[in-house]
Amino acid sequence: xxxxxxKGTASTKKQDSKKAASKVSRYFRELKSExxxxxxxxxxxIVNNTLVVLAAIIIASIFIGGFDILLGGLVTLVL
Length: 79
Hints:
By secondary structure, the protein is mostly helical. The protein is built from two helices and no strands.
């Protein structure tokens, strides 16, 4: 390999490194601008959504528990 080819390879690696750094910095700039566009919920919305989720969990657990008890009773009768 000649010296010119080695220099060309080294400069190509530097350019690739600069391009990669440029892409990373652009990514974070765009990320910052997108985060600014997000509409964050206020405290009242968070509390309301949390209560809805907890209610749904309680209802689902009662339904699944009742179904389990029913099927357990049926299995006991069959056996």
